[in-house]
Write a structure and sequence with these properties.
Helices cover about 55% and strands about 10% of the residues. By secondary structure, the chain is of the alpha+beta class. The longest helix is centred in the N-terminal third of the chain and has 32 residues.
Length: about 450
């Protein structure tokens, strides 16, 4: 059978890869070489996966899948590659999107970004081509979770009718159940952010209770304890929480559904829809339409942060720990660990290098960074520190020239706005919203 030059080369690469895999004995590889070898293999896998993904849409064009009795090209790809149908569909969608995204295609082929990163970028850039370059830059420093968050925002910004999208997601809502090959049972919820947030908020409430009641389980990961919280939620229904003689009264009073942190630009709230890079989202979950935000304002117990841009009010405390007001403000600006590439959401509030409480005897909002337990220990016990700046940034050892101890602090480094959030009229509503966030001025 005739083979093109490209087909022969691919065959030779596949044969060479098989030879390497068969000859590789991990125990024979020097430890000093293992990391370099792993990175080289990963780059090769990325490039080959990119080539396979690019070819997927052409496989659909061939119609070979029809001749072999498959219902779709994705079903044929899933069978051929031994992956799930969902993964094959995603590969097909990415393949089609890449035809109009040369920059993403180039970086995938070079192995600079992973197939998963490429899929996320292609999906968002297909809806919002202007976001492609920024998403590629984000992929260079952020982890996959953070990249997905940015991609969601990019898609939301390009959505001409977010209410219609929300309605479609509601129509497509589903709960999928299956048992995997290991015998573990899976539940998978799919639906609009604001509706799934109700369930997540209740699980988080139960999770806090589980952590308080079982301090000896501190070594268990949060996901395992969250599973226990979900089971506890199912075992103890709302009717069991409320005594029978109070249940009807509670129902009549209309008990709020859940606690959430809603972030939005005030102009979008008044206007009724978001424009440009205006923000409307449930923290940690994703963007929602302004109409959905207004519905949450009507039936949720939430801490409302209404702001223009990224500035939040400056607060100072004479105590070591942050006030509740500071915690909400930090959750607004930094919902995850501040260290670049870390997406842990269970954080401790760390005083920045040069602004430790033992020296300053105060706690300022603009001198705090949320850090996960591991990175907090690296700072406290091993002298590592975040480089100068704001937002997500690298944490470096004392030997690194970027370490704050090796540099002169730039003017205003680490300082946020000292005034309250700038809001548009009506000013009374803006002031009321800030009181909702920061509570009594004495705080």
């Amino acid at each position: 059978m005739f083979q093109s030059v490209l087909e022969r080369r691919v065959g030779e690469v596949a044969e060479a890869a098989a030879i390497v895999a068969r000859a590789l004995d991990p125990d024979d590889v020097p430890a000093s070489e293992a990391v370099r070898l792993y990175r080289s293999l990963d780059t090769a896998v990325r490039s080959l996966t990119a080539a396979k993904t690019l070819l997927a849409r052409r496989v659909e064009d061939s119609a070979e899948w029809k001749r072999q009795g498959y219902k779709s090209a994705a079903e044929f790809l899933a069978s051929t590659s031994g992956t799930s149908l969902g993964a094959a569909r995603s590969e097909m969608e990415t393949s089609k999107a890449l035809s109009g995204l040369p920059a993403t295609k180039e970086q995938m082929a070079a192995g600079t970004i992973s197939p998963q990163q490429g899929s996320v970028i292609a999906g968002a850039a297909k809806a919002n081509p202007a976001a492609e370059n920024q998403l590629l830059r984000t992929a260079g420093t952020a982890n996959l979770h953070e990249l997905r968050d940015e991609a969601l925002k990019a898609k939301a910004a390009a959505d001409a009718n977010p209410e219609a999208t929300h309605a479609r997601l509601h129509r497509e809502r589903r709960l999928m159940r299956f048992t995997d090959a290991a015998g573990a049972r899976h539940l998978n919820l799919h639906g609009p952010v604001d509706e799934v947030a109700v369930i997540e908020a209740e699980i988080d409430r139960r999770l806090s209770q589980v952590i308080r009641e079982r301090p000896g389980d501190g070594m268990e990961c949060r996901d395992a304890l969250a599973f226990d919280a979900a089971v506890a939620m199912a075992k103890r229904s709302e009717s069991a929480d409320v005594p029978a003689d109070r249940a009807s009264r509670k129902a009549k009073q209309g008990r709020p559904q859940h606690l959430a942190l809603l972030r939005l630009d005030v102009e979008a709230l008044w206007r009724g829809y978001a424009k440009g890079d205006e923000l409307v989202e449930v923290t940690g979950l994703g963007p929602i339409p302004v109409a959905a935000a207004r519905r949450l304002l009507g039936d949720a117990v939430l801490k409302l942060i209404i702001t223009k841009g990224e500035a939040v009010a400056h607060v100072t405390s004479l105590t070591r720990g942050p006030t509740q007001a500071m915690r909400y403000a930090l959750l607004w600006t930094s919902p995850t660990c501040t260290v670049e590439g870390c997406s842990r959401t269970i954080v401790e509030h760390d005083h920045r290098y040069g602004a430790e409480y033992k020296d300053t005897r105060h706690t300022r909002l603009d001198e705090l960074d949320p850090l996960c337990h591991s990175h907090h220990d690296l700072h406290t016990l091993h002298g590592r520190a975040l480089v100068f700046g704001e937002g997500r940034r690298p944490m470096v050892p004392p030997s690194d020239e970027r370490h704050p101890g090796n540099q002169r602090a730039p003017s205003g480094a680490g300082r946020q706005s000292t005034g309250p959030p700038e809001t548009s009229s009506p000013t009374a509503a803006g002031r009321h919203s800030q009181r909702g966030l920061f509570g009594d001025p004495a705080a």
